[in-house]
Design a protein that fits this description.
By secondary structure, the protein is α+β, with helices and mostly antiparallel strands. It is 32% helix and 35% strand. GO terms for molecular function: ATP binding; ATP-dependent diacylglycerol kinase activity; metal ion binding.
């Protein structure tokens, strides 16, 4: 087998510092598969050892670019690829606290199986979202609880993992549910306005570990197509009374959203424009994505290739 040159980017601080613990095993597995590895730690605050600088400097030297970390680590890698217009296939070894997008892609949890798929598998081309000038893998969100993903203390996340997000959500609940935004939303030639407390434009079968999206059966709930060139859009209107709160909570728990639901809207679209009376803060793949009064979101069909195990090899196992 021809030797593959692999650029390995490791964020050791994601999750509960799993990347640091697994580093030797990861290097060993790639070496066993006849790969020539170049390894860099990702230090976001460093001018040299950040994803953007490394990808820019070594853009044409590798057959594969692999990141080890959480969904945020993958987010910065994909943004770098899109900005540099690089078509190199990527690999993803998830070690974060939630790993939403890894679950959507079907990346094996077993390290050896995942690395085997990265080296000997097949590329899966998936859709990428774009908010103004920034890119996102699986979700762009605003409003209630969206600050939790990037506002939770890193040390707390390292110690408690996913539980840290839950604790932060509980702590900030009064603030999250009391703030609403006056928005005009345009999609597919039609416009509507209102007060909203939350919005998510996503391309994932799991967000925050939650998979209860619209659909009467589990199979339908998980039927988000990562290659169809469309976003799933979820919007929650600001509640005016206790009954409205009850409607939002029951809808969220059931995952079943009727078309005429007064509080929760769900639809698919290829692009979306939003106008806000005040700056609207966003989180992209769990990272801060800026604040804007005017926003345009579009989907870039099958823009990135990620290496996954071949389907026939999964079936044999």
């Amino acid at each position: 087998m021809m030797e593959k040159k692999v650029l390995l980017l490791i964020n050791s601080s994601s999750g509960q510092e799993k990347g640091k613990t697994l580093l030797y095993n990861i290097v060993e597995e790639f070496a066993k598969k006849n790969c020539e590895l170049t390894v860099f730690p990702i230090l976001p605050k460093s001018k040299k050892l950040n994803t953007e600088n490394i990808v820019h400097k070594y853009r044409d030297r590798f057959d594969l670019i692999v990141c080890v970390g959480g969904d945020g680590t993958l987010h910065y890698l994909v943004n770098s690829l899109m900005v540099e217009k690089i078509q190199t296939p990527i690999g993803y070894i998830p070690t974060g606290s939630t790993n939403d997008f890894a679950a959507s892609l079907g990346i094996p949890k077993d390290l050896k199986e995942n690395i085997g798929g990265i080296v000997k598998g097949e590329p899966f081309q998936y859709d990428i979202g774009k908010l103004n000038d920034l890119y996102f893998n699986y979700i762009a969100a605003f409003g209630a609880f969206t600050k939790v993903s990037y506002g939770t203390n890193q040390e707390l996340k390292n110690n408690l993992g996913h539980m840290a997000y839950i604790l932060e959500s509980i702590r900030t609940m009064p603030e999250n549910l009391s703030k609403s935004y006056s928005l005009k939303i345009t999609s597919g030639g039609s416009s509507f306005s209102g007060e909203y407390i939350f919005g998510a434009i996503f391309n994932s079968r799991s967000v925050g570990g939650f998979t209860g999206f619209p659909g009467s059966s589990l199979e339908e709930k998980l039927a988000v197509d990562l290659q169809d060139g469309e976003f799933e859009v979820l919007l929650i209107r600001a509640p005016k009374n206790i009954a409205d709160y009850g409607e939002i909570i029951s809808t969220a728990l059931s995952g079943n959203i009727p078309e005429n639901n007064p509080q929760v809207q769900f639809f698919k679209t290829k692009n979306l424009s939003i106008e806000a009376e005040e700056e609207l803060g966003w989180t992209l793949d769990g990272e801060f994505g800026g604040a804007y009064k005017e926003m345009h979101l579009e989907i870039l069909k099958r823009a990135v290739s990620v290496m996954l195990p071949k389907k026939d090899s999964i079936e044999k196992e």
